[in-house]
Amino acid sequence: MGTVKKAPMRQCVGCGEMKSKKEMVRILRTAEGEIVPDATGRKNGRGAYLCVSRECLRKAIKSKGLERALKVPIPEEIYEALEKEMEAFAGD
Description:
The protein has about 90 residues and is α+β, with helices and mostly antiparallel strands. It is built from 3 helices and 5 strands. A hairpin with a 5-residue loop joins β3 and β4 (about 35-40). It is globular, with a radius of gyration of 13 Å.
């Protein structure tokens, strides 16, 4: 009898749904204060998870969920860059 490994679950800061970590994109605040998507999910820094959809990103922007999760104010240019990068993830 082998043990069944549970998939790690994370909550989307946009819609609030719990999904497996593999279904989501991690948004990372690095030690230098940069905010970037973390495709591997293993980089050092404070992370927040979003579903791979433009709608969840919009909800996170409107509710300031991403700012609360990363504990830093986020300028509009970074949201625009994240939206472009989310389109690339959704295309995969």
